[in-house]
Amino acid sequence: MRQGKSKIRGEVQGTFLKGCVYVEEKFYLILAKNSAQMLLINKLLRENGIETDLVPSPPESGTVCAIAIKIQGVNLEKAKNILFENQIEVRGIYEDKKMKLQGLIDKKLGASVSKEFLDILKKIEDGDELLEKEIVYLLSTKDIKEIESIYAAADRIKRETVGNVLEIRGAIEFSNYCCKKCKYCGINSQNKIERYRMNEEEIMEVVGYLNKIGLRTVILQSGEDPHWGTERLIQLIKRIKKETGMRITLSVGEKSFEEYESLKLAGADNYLLKIETTNRKLFKTIHPDGDFDSRLKCSRWLKELGYINGSGNIIGIPGQTIEDIARDILYFKEMGINMIGIGPFIPAKGTVFENMPPGDIDLTIRTMAVTRIVCKKVYIPSTTALASLSKDAQIRALKAGANTIMLINTPAKYRTNYMIYNDKNMVDIDSAIYAAKKAGLELPKYLKL
């Protein structure tokens, strides 16, 4: 469902209009009390003929990472009646208003940038959605004043939607076994590396540490490892929930609908499955045993099941164009992605791309900023890959729309073998605190140090 203008003939809000007019169509966002209630409401509305979409929650809800049910304004009263008849109390119903940002343009700026850029900036001020060609312009401009304005707009949107607090997550890379042949990845099945699998007790020891320092979310990441199948993961998820109550993000690849559903029912909250590129031809090039439509299907299943849905792309992967990146950003918007991981391509030893140059840091940060402008209230990590190319790059990203850092908490004896790319930076809590202070962000209150 896309917000826009509806073409209406005849009577409009009690007024008879001759010919054809355009009326701005209103949309509303229903915010449930929890994930289970959200899925129930979404099911009830659809069964009663109301078209819905699941999107990131509105800024005024006060909830940083949640999913709202989007409906057309013409269906609002019907939806309210359905909620009343089923005795469902919700957290709130909000009009899906444009986010306006007055003050982005002043006379001094207007005299130093192009008219095309000013027109785009005016659309950002008015809260209007950007076209692909406008996103391409923002990604392509070389003008320093324009770039500074892009970063300033992204930073302001971040502060007004998700706040000025650095979100910190702890990641455990629990297996580097993988059955896939992705050409860019250092742990692909054909690469000759030392393999490892952590057992449940090893994982729980790290989870205990993360819980002790106050982190609320643990990220369980691995290659697509058949040994760590759904049943083993369910057992692990249930134990983490029982012993710590932490939120759980899974990043374990493509699975069936039934598997995703079982993992969600066991207690998984979030799922990260990067699209990596929306260019079908390029996707096939870097995933010789992958299927673009299957990846899309998995992302839709995750959304349908009520996961906080994560995706992302790789900037500078061989064969990529600026237009590809712009389409990636539009995909994140249209899919209603909640968490968007954007990192530079870094070659991995032993892969066919081993001798290719890394992705451009400036373009990666610019992509983060434009993604913030387009997608608004989402989690955007200042990625480990950025920190691997430059410590300052991670700080720059936090000043340009990013709001999250992922710590690498894989035990020292394993972490050097989870080399999805060369010279990986092992971001720890000290470096996260340093980055937050340098970027002018507050540390989260849940942190216990």
UniProtKB/TrEMBL annotation:
<keyword id="KW-0479">Metal-binding</keyword>
<dbReference type="InterPro" id="IPR021778">
    <property type="entry name" value="Se/S_carrier-like"/>
</dbReference>
<dbReference type="InterPro" id="IPR058240">
    <property type="entry name" value="rSAM_sf"/>
</dbReference>
<dbReference type="Pfam" id="PF04055">
    <property type="entry name" value="Radical_SAM"/>
</dbReference>
<dbReference type="InterPro" id="IPR013785">
    <property type="entry name" value="Aldolase_TIM"/>
</dbReference>
<dbReference type="InterPro" id="IPR024021">
    <property type="entry name" value="FeFe-hyd_HydE_rSAM"/>
</dbReference>
<dbReference type="InterPro" id="IPR006638">
    <property type="entry name" value="Elp3/MiaA/NifB-like_rSAM"/>
</dbReference>
<keyword id="KW-0004">4Fe-4S</keyword>
<dbReference type="InterPro" id="IPR007197">
    <property type="entry name" value="rSAM"/>
</dbReference>
<keyword id="KW-0949">S-adenosyl-L-methionine</keyword>
<keyword id="KW-0411">Iron-sulfur</keyword>
<dbReference type="Pfam" id="PF11823">
    <property type="entry name" value="Se_S_carrier"/>
</dbReference>
<dbReference type="InterPro" id="IPR034422">
    <property type="entry name" value="HydE/PylB-like"/>
</dbReference>
<dbReference type="GO" id="GO:0036355">
    <property type="term" value="F:2-iminoacetate synthase activity"/>
</dbReference>
<dbReference type="GO" id="GO:0016740">
    <property type="term" value="F:transferase activity"/>
</dbReference>
<dbReference type="Pfam" id="PF06968">
    <property type="entry name" value="BATS"/>
</dbReference>
<dbReference type="GO" id="GO:0046872">
    <property type="term" value="F:metal ion binding"/>
</dbReference>
<protein>
    <submittedName>
        <fullName>2-iminoacetate synthase</fullName>
        <ecNumber>4.1.99.19</ecNumber>
    </submittedName>
</protein>
<dbReference type="GO" id="GO:0051539">
    <property type="term" value="F:4 iron, 4 sulfur cluster binding"/>
</dbReference>
<keyword id="KW-0456">Lyase</keyword>
<keyword id="KW-0408">Iron</keyword>
<feature type="domain" description="Radical SAM core">
    <location>
        <begin position="164"/>
        <end position="383"/>
    </location>
</feature>
<dbReference type="InterPro" id="IPR010722">
    <property type="entry name" value="BATS_dom"/>
</dbReference>
